[in-house]
Amino acid sequence: MADETSSPxxxxxxxxxxxxxxxxxxxxxxxxxxxxxxxLAILSGVYTLQWARAVFIPLMLGxxxxxxxxxxxxxxxxxxxxxxxxxxxxxxxxxxxxxxSAYSFADDAAALIETLPEAAQxxxxxxxxxxxxAQGPIQKVQKAAAEIERATHGEAAAPESSSGVxxxxxxxPDFSLRDYLWSGTLGLAGAVGQTIVxxxxxxxxxxxxxxxxxxxxxxxxxxxxxxxITIQALDEMTAQIQRYLLVQLFxxxxxxxxxxLAFLWIGLNHAAVWGIVAxxxxxxxxxxxxxxxxxxxxxxxxxxGTLEMAxxxxxxxxxxxxxxxxxLTPWLTSQASRMNPVAIFxxxxxxxxxxxxxxxxLGVPILLVVKAVCDRxxxxxxxxxxxxx
Length: 389
Known about the structure:
Blueprint: E1 4-6, E2 12-14, H1 32-51, H2 53-78, H3 83-104, H4 106-114, H5 116-132, H6 137-162, H7 177-208, H8 211-220, H9 224-266, H10 271-281, H11 287-304, H12 307-337, H13 341-355, H14 357-374, H15 381-387
Antiparallel strand pairs: 1-2
């Protein structure tokens, strides 16, 4: 029987104690606002990079070239060459060498352009000769498709033509040589202007030495830990970009030598020159392969006079570039930069979509900078782990 006690007002009260209700654990609300702001920030950043690519691309090229050439300027400075003079000699000497190389190849390029009509005529004659014989599978498929189209649409087309309906035929405008030359001149002038801008950015960054490095360390904050992290990130960026550029230089040399040996074995004239061209254009992903393959196939067709030899030369160039692009370069880049090949390939595709050919060139260095920063910031370490090997 439960004990009963009286309350001060005379009402009986049981001795059973009331148990407090269990408290529910507080559920943190989903912060949709911060997630939406993050998505909007990413989209605005992508749009800004696309919209201001005329500024960002020369700036990134200048930074990459200054990082690559800074050891040479440092070495010249140790030999008592003033930094301003050493940077000027290096940058504008390299620019003069590019101009001289282009001028030396101008005659060969003009001769190649002059042979284009002859090459087109030979290709047309060769195709007509092959089509004059027995029909191949492609010709049979085309003939069957034409017969099916004639059977399905031929009877219905006759009444429409006799019903008085006027047929409308859209004619393409004639080719205008003046407009073509004008657009090409504007494109060449723009490329020359961009090259000059990149050269001046590279020169100013090389001449400034470690000024920007010291400024970034000061901006990082007054504490010793922040400055230490900034210095480590800058050192990692420099080392990663330099290793990546060394890999690119090595693969270009490999492609040049392999192309020279392959063209020499086939018997192509000026095999050494075409090997140098293949090595230089290897620095331009995908586009370089198309240019070298097309040019060497055209030259081979003019020299040997058969489509089989032209396809053999182009195929040899394609095989060399494919082995280098899909096997050698991703493996060496992943070893030198400690990044996985999937991240490299995906990043190059994304930057190529954003900036075109310049994105293909700058995609990997930008990823290296992003990984160096993410590895040293606690909140961004998951991204660095995702990019790492």
